[in-house]
Design brief:
mainly alpha, 2 helices, about 0% strand
Length: about 90
């Protein structure tokens, strides 16, 4: 059973479900992951804008570095590709 970094169990795909329902559950999980990654990118953009206007205290973690942001965009891209491949299985 997968766990998140905080040690909480994560249940999304039930191994006892039929394969079609498992794919649907996997696609839902991918959609959740993509949504969370997009929120991280948006939060980083907001933090960068606020820092540029000197409206927040300096935080060394926000905004995200260009490399981290590109990594998140790559993750979204490949998660989308994977989700599309799940939809094409019989």
């Amino acid at each position: 059973m997968p766990h998140d970094p905080f040690g909480r169990p994560f249940y999304l795909v039930d191994p006892d479900e039929e394969p079609r329902r498992q794919r649907t559950q996997q696609q839902a999980g991918i959609a959740i992951a993509i949504n969370e990654l997009r929120h991280l990118i948006a939060y980083s953009d907001i933090a960068r804008d606020l820092q540029a206007r000197h409206l927040t205290a300096e935080n060394r973690h926000w905004p995200l570095s260009a490399a981290r942001k590109e990594g998140l965009h790559a993750a979204i891209h490949f998660l989308n590709q994977y989700a599309q491949s799940l939809g094409h299985e019989p």
